[in-house]
Amino acid sequence: MDELPQFENKTTSQSQCPPFVSVVIPVYNGSRTIVACIESLLGLDYPSDHYEIIVVDNNSTDGTDNIVREYPVTLLYEREIQTSYLDIVKLT
After folding, report:
1. Within 1-92, where are the H helices?
2. Distance between CA atoms of 78 and 64, rounded to whole angstroms?
3. How far is it, in rounded angstroms, from Cα 26 to Cα 81?
4. What is the pLDDT of residue 72?
5. What residues does each domain of the chain span?
6. 21-91: which CATH topology?
7. Model confidence at 61: pLDDT above 70
């Protein structure tokens, strides 16, 4: 496998802090995949105090929210609109 090219960030110097990043994970019945997703994000080579992980559960029925609660992430619920997240994007 070819290595990915490395890009220099022209907007920040080595002495400046990296930007704060929010990673939002929409999920519905994702108990089989949410652990790998969260653990890969927690393992990022990025300062942990410069990013947050927000999981938005769309009323899962498979215990996804119980799994998410075991991790240092923010868990939110969307209970009013039960649809694919792609449909929500189309509505806005």
Report:
1. 34-42, 64-68, 85-91
2. 13
3. 13
4. 97
5. 21-91
6. Spore Coat Polysaccharide Biosynthesis Protein SpsA; Chain A (3.90.550)
7. yes
Instruction: Give residue-wise pLDDT tens across range 12-41.
Output: 455 588 999 999 999 999 999 999 999 999
Place of tokens 């002495």: 15
56 with 26: CB under 8 angstroms? yes
* Burial (Cβ within 10 Å: 0-12, 13-18, ≥19) of residue 47: exposed
pTM of the model: 0.74
pLDDT recorded at residue 57:
94
Asked whether the beta carbons of 61 and 68 are under 8 A apart, the reply is: no
CA distance 54 to 24: 5
